[in-house]
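Changelog excerpt

This revision adds worked examples to the README so contributors can see how folded entries look when concatenated. The first example is reproduced verbatim below.
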Amino acid sequence: MAHALPLDPAPEGAAAAARAHPWRAELRAMLALALPVTLSQVGLMLMNVVDAMMVGHLSAAALAATALGTVYFYAFVAFGQGVLFALDPVVSQAVGARDADAVAHAVQRGVVLALALAVPIMLALLPAPWVLARLGQPAEVWPTAAAFARASAPGVVPYLLFTVLRQTLQAQHRTRAVVWAIVVGNVANLLLNWVFIYGRLGMPAYGAVGSAWSTTIGRWGMLATLAALGWPHLRAALRPWRADAWRPGAVGRLARLGAPIGAQQALEYGAFGAVGVAMGGLGTAAMAGHQATLNLASLTFMVPLGVSAAAAVRVGHAVGAGDAPRARRAAAAALLVGVGFMACTAVMLLIAPRPLAGLYTDDAAVLALAASLIPIAGVFQVFDGLQVVSLGILRGAGDTRAPAVANVVGFWGLGLPIGAWLAYRAGGGPRGLWWGLVLGLAITGLVNAALVRRRLRGAVARVRV
């Protein structure tokens, strides 16, 4: 049976302009894709930002519990999402090669893989009380954090399926439905936070746990909205359903390609999570101040993360088309946009830490600590942009293993141990832990940039599963 191609050919005028001014055309194409993808990334992060801001005005303990519960949730979900990022090279390269059948096989196997990953991830969230009680966290924090993690469990399935559909639409340059779905999710999360956190409209006040329920419902709303609005562009990939989409060998190949990405994401998130756990050992104020700073840094990070996703698509299209020079232009354009933006945010974090900290808390101790950590976050902005954009470029080229190794060395081999020494032996406290993160990001960013240069030096083979 014939299927519609997932990406229409460029109009002749646009193709002629690209041939005449290839660098300008690539930068324009990168920005055109990166802008809506970045908006969607910011929207996803905004749900956590709103949760933190609304819970933070309850108490420092409530903010710390939200931080710890979020760390526990993403410690597992980050791996599953990373595995599904294997769809980036497979689908984008298939689109570049005009191979609609390969797109359909990849997407359907992605759905199967998402459902398979959701089961162990949800089960891993159930023992949160037992795990968090043994991590040395404050007694006023960990029970609420455990309840938060458990309340987040029903949101795992929509989170992973949303990832599959989003990566598919991005690979086709179809991003409008993604943006609208995230708008719906954020509006639902904001309104339900008001109801569940503070006990409005006759509902009990659930506090921090209420924000977890709000986000879970918002994730189901995002999935439903994306499936409905994106269906015209998803239909050819999802219907008819291929019998071999369930084949363990084929799904296993996709999982093996994505496993290093999942490991890299889990290890990087785990590094920040380990710092969060260590902050809990330094007290509730330290944990809350860390969460406010990390939340802010994570929000700025969404922009290069969106550029990274766009880079994976643009590089993947070029690789699928067998156009190595275009792949190198796409990589250069992505680095210019992503790293340039983070250089600007670095200045903002360095010059206005206290007003930014005041967005999250009124507690004097938490405010002072966050204001001392935000400038350190400003220092690592450029390195953070460099490492994540390079990851997207490498993913689009099908290189998923080497970046995971760089992550292990940068964060776990050097950054975390040195940060722990600075915090506990050198008396640096919370600031010492954050300087360790700066070191880990600097090493990872520079190594990943070197890997990009090596990978794109010559022709790049297409990835198939």
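The second example, added in the same revision:
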Amino acid sequence: MNTELTEMDRESPEDGGAQTTPQRRPGRGGGALAMLALLVALAAAAGTGWMWWQDRASAGQDNQRLMQEIARLDAGDSALSLKLESLRDEIASLKASGGGEALAALQQRLESDRDRLGELERSIEEQLTLSRSLQNSTAAMHSRLQAAESGLASLAAPAVNAGRDLDLAEVDYLLRLANERLQLFSDRDAADQALALAESQLAALDNPAYLGVRQEIAAARRALARAQMPDYLQMAAELDGLQAQVPSLPFAGASMAVSTEAGQSDVSWWGRLKSSLAGLVTIRRSADDVTLSIDDKDYLRQRLWLQLEMAHLALMRRDSSGFRNALQRAGETLGRWFDGDADAVRSAGRALDELAAAEIDVDLPDISKPWNSLRVLRSSTPLPTPAPPSVGSETADAEEPASTDGGQ
């Protein structure tokens, strides 16, 4: 910078000398150009100086940072040298006090301990590897056991469900059978036995969900025990016995015809001829004096049997008026066409009178509630199928068989 300024100072007297030379006087245009060149030169010199000053400032900062880092390293080196000196002093003191052998023994022990530690680490690594393999084997065995348990559960679940469904189906059949035996045949004993079997089957299931059904079964059995019912089976058996006696009942006038045939056995051939021809011709003189042919007798026996059969059907329907009317018509047929003096006819007439006096139209207890409740419970059991119908619809469906049975 100073060198450039000196050169400029040297050049300026020469210029000035040139300007003061009287022989060379430049014009105004040349002076302005020289002034502009001087200003440009001054600006360039100022920029160069400014840049030099900035470089010197940044270089000074870098040098300062470098000196600080060197000082820090020197301080660390000094501290390390001090530590090394202290260690040398300690080693020298140990050697001077005879601790070299102890130090060597200690180093040997350290080496042996390092070897043992390495062996122990290798053993630990082996044990860890074995433990990991055992854990993997245990996890695989556990997964297989879980798969086997799930398979057994999946196999056992259908069997348990099938057994439960089978037991419930058996209970449903017993309850339906009890209702049918009472409604169709009025067989109180058979209905009570079916209810008892159904109750024992539900008790064996040991499911609190069916406690209400068991209570309804107990109530139905108590209602059966209180009911005053005629012995329909005995009455049906008596009607069957009367129907079995119909082919052997004697007709009115059969004994007189037998005596007449016995008295005419010694008549001449003309009399025997007339008697043989008389069997082919029937002469009805009045309503009280009638001679029946074989076809008429068969017709009357069939008529009496059908009248008793109508009484049997009315007994099954619990139709009191139809039962009495059928027995009354059977009694009229028996009294008009059959021999009233015969013991069999009189016994049949007394049996008809006793049957007509019996009351067959009685109020039967309703034992269909357990069956309906069981059907509702079975239909509302959750299954892997679409949602079952509502309880109200199932109850309505369950009441239809009971009403139908009652109508029959």
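Reviewer comment on example two: Residues 149-229+367-408 form one domain. Residues 1 and 52 are 9 Å apart (CA to CA).
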